[in-house]
Amino acid sequence: MKRKISILESIRQAKVGGGESHVYELAKHINRELFELEVLCFSDGPLIKKIEELGIKVHLIQSKHPFDIRTWLKIIRLYRSKRYDLIHAHGSRAASNLFFLSWLTSCKFIYTIHGWSFHPAQSAIVRLLRIRCEAFITRCAELNITVSNSNFLQGQRLFGLKRNKTVYNGIDPRRFDINLIPCSSIRGQFNIPKERTLVGYLVRITEQKDPITFVEAISIVTKETCDVHFLIVGNGNLQPKIRQLISDKKLDEYVSFSNFRDDMPEILKSIDIYCLPSLWEGMPIGMIEAMYMGCACVATSVDGSKELIQHGKTGLLIPPRNPYALAMSLLNLHYNQAKRKLLGKRAQQYAQNRFDINHMTSIIERCYQEICSHSNQTLAS
To answer: For residue 67, what is the DSSP state?
Structure first.
């Protein structure tokens, strides 16, 4: 019987987010007859339990820093205990602490970029340093996988990114089939009247997702109408600040809060508009899920998001850090229900035709096989 290819998938956090969802879905759908999978996380969180429930072993090596030499001995011990054929790092933090194994061993190294670690909100010096780190890591990889074409073009332009393949994130069609999801009680749980337009902000509440602009837009919308309600679902370092800001602006009656939940399909089925005012993106899985469910989307025109949305056809795009533009777009879709439904329908058709988890997994499986096959041929010769 042919030996399975042994793979270590690795990600920085075990919390809830796009990269973490990607790793979980890949672990869930990969062909277990061909591949033997284990997962390494550099921080604790709910992802560990979810993956273990799939019958997959998870390793935890605590680290808060990139290029953390203090963890390298632990990583080497882990590798020696298993002798993986291939290590697949998701995100720059995981990649920065795993690339060295390809130098020390015969193990192949793949790096998936879920959005670059450099972004416009950084100082010029920090951004330049991050760009150089990404250039170094990508050169160490046997294969780089970008989750959006815009990320590939940006890497190519800034440091000549090579050995790259763009693989879009995939959605589980069974989990997000709107016809299979039971009628939700979300509005009842939060006491949201049925006649109100419900806007969902379902993200990790961090600087990247620009929650302050979102709250400022809420303030503008609620001065115009009382018939729009806002549901914020997520955790993050800015959550306490945003809760306080909403209270200070006396917006509590228009906003409902929740930490991250496992019933995201039910929530998406309940909302009318999905809002993502990010300052930067790789390829936002949350918005793909919303589109897959037929939600009308309003997002900022940043890389990743603007690759998903055609303005006026599959959603609405606005400039970043512009609460007035965001508020006007939300009001537009609130008052124009026919337009809202048309955008949602087109978004659903677009997403269902392009973002399937089985297609994504099959492409990545072929990458694994080709890289390991090439490695075996080289050793044999």
So the answer is: T
Residue 203 and residue 199: Cα distance in Å, rounded?
A: 13
C-alpha closest to that of 279 among 330, 207, 219, 329: 207
Burial class (CB in 10 A: 0-12, 13-18, 19+), 363: middle
The boundaries of the domain holding residue 61 are 5-170+356-380
Q: What gap in Å lies between CA 100 and CA 152, rounded to an integer?
A: 23
Question: Could you tell me which residue, 176 or 322, shows the higher pLDDT?
Answer: 322
Nearest to 84 by CA among 377, 280, 371, 303: 371
| 10 within a domain of the structure (yes/no) | yes
| CATH number of residue 31's parent domain | 3.40.50.2000
Q: What is the rounded distance in angstroms from the CA atom of residue 358 to the CA atom of residue 99?
A: 28
Range 291-328 burial, b when 16+ CB lie within 10 A, else e: bbbbbbbbbbebbbbbbbbeeeebbbbbebebbebbbb
Among candidate residues 178, 179, 149, the one with its CA nearest the CA of residue 164: 149
Rg (CA), the chain: 21
331 and 269 within one domain: yes
Reported confidence tier of residue 61, pLDDT bands at 50, 70, 90: very high
- What 3-state class would DSSP assign to 381? coil
Backbone angles phi, psi at 353, to 5 degrees: -80, -15
Q: C-alpha angle with apex 168: 138 to 127, nearest 5 degrees?
A: 40
Asked, for residue 178, whether it belongs to a domain, the answer is no
Q: Is the pLDDT of residue 145 over 90?
A: yes
Quick check: is 138 in a domain? yes
pTM: predicted TM-score of the whole model, two decimal places:
0.89
Using 50, 70 and 90 to split pLDDT, how confident is the model at 379? Answer: very low
- Are 54 and 104 within one domain? yes
Helix or strand or coil: residue 4?
Answer: coil
8 A C-beta contact, residue 153 and residue 144: no
Phi, psi dihedral angles at 158 (to 5 degrees): -85, -35
